[in-house]
Amino acid sequence: MTNDDRICEECKKNPERGFKLLLDAYQQSMYWHIRRMVVSHEDAEDVLQEALIRIFKYLGDFRGDSALSTWIYRITTNECIRFLNRQREEAISTEEVQEELMNKLMASEYVDYDNAMEVKFQKAILTLPEKQRLVFNLRYYDELTYEEIGKITDSKVETLKANYHFAKEKIKAYMSS
Questions:
Q1: How many domains does the chain have?
Q2: In CATH, what number is assigned to the domain containing residue 33?
């Protein structure tokens, strides 16, 4: 029995205990996935809270059509997109959203500002369009397969490979400038 199977089993018997097991297994990776998308620690905490509420609410509906981690990433990703869409509605342009994310990156206490390459790399990622940034983060940081990313984003593998390729090329160009 896998850890995910144990979590699902426990959720059926004792939802609170099952949810605690889920938190132990996934909360940290969820946080960093969100953080890479929304940048700010405070925003990431808010989005994480919303994602956890949604996961707890719908945990009983999980059918096992995919891995539990895939289902969790999908919910978490959707919460990130909701948050970014709300930001976009408040902003005048895409450039304004990117500028806001850059400002949050520079204000973050979690970035090693002594490492100029790390800061430049993070800035490069933030210049990517949202879909490319999402695919890049899931593939590069979370080391998910294109098939897993496809289930999370409801996208075709070929499209994801193209998004990742374009993201890498943009990041390389940014890093060499």
A1: 1
A2: 1.10.1740.10
